[in-house]
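Please annotate the following for my students:
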Amino acid sequence: MINARWRPLFARLFPGFLGLAAFASLLSAGLAAPALAETPSLLDAITRSGTLRVGLTEDYRPFSIADASGIVEGIDVDMANNLAMSLGVKLQIVKTSWPTLKSDLETDKFDIAMGGITITLDRQKVGLFSTPVFSSGKTPITRCGDEVKYATLSQIDRPGVRVIVNPGGTNERFDKAHLHNGTIVSWTDNATIFDALARGEADLMITDAVETRLQAKLHPGVLCPVHPDAPFDRSELGYWMPRDVIFAAYIDQWLNLLNLTGQHQTILARWLP
């Protein structure tokens, strides 16, 4: 409460003020404000639990892929292990999928989603993204020898042309936005989709340029990327997490330090063609 000796001074300095009682209430609220900053964050919950839960689709080389024995590896498996180590906790990989990625984030299935997630405004409405970790763009991959047939969207968007796609992600969104005359072939198993393309189940696939380069390496002389250095659009990949600014700030600082020390570049070099 304001001392009576100061009341005349406040009355002269703030003649239109709401009143001393109101001022006292605002002052009290201001003094209490720092307590709001002490609200527990996801960062605290992770360190208390001793476990970092990372959502991965396990079907997108070179970011995360499960082998026949179920072992998951890739760029973001290495990154997830590094993040868990930085937090002093163990890593728990949570399998998710492109169609369920959003709902899994919203229902707290994991603390952070990694594994080649394109940053979009629709996803930003649901959670926060880290600073970008990779830049790419959509471009075709087809059987070698057919590259000149599918170099432009107008060549691709024709009756009789079959474009294979994994449902639930930005590849499908791109196809539906740009292709109206060709046939979109949905293939639910993203881990085998390029084998299907190699067998002739479709004429081409449109996906991130980094993936086309890697799949061409895995299918030498069979699958070839189409202008991966000049994709149809530009996009960035990042890590997706709940709306917790404290945890998001930690992730960004962790990424910043990995880049400064060169550890991020070392991990990328291990997996990229």
Remarks:
- DSSP finds twelve helices and 14 strands in the chain.
- The two ends are 69 Å apart (CA to CA).
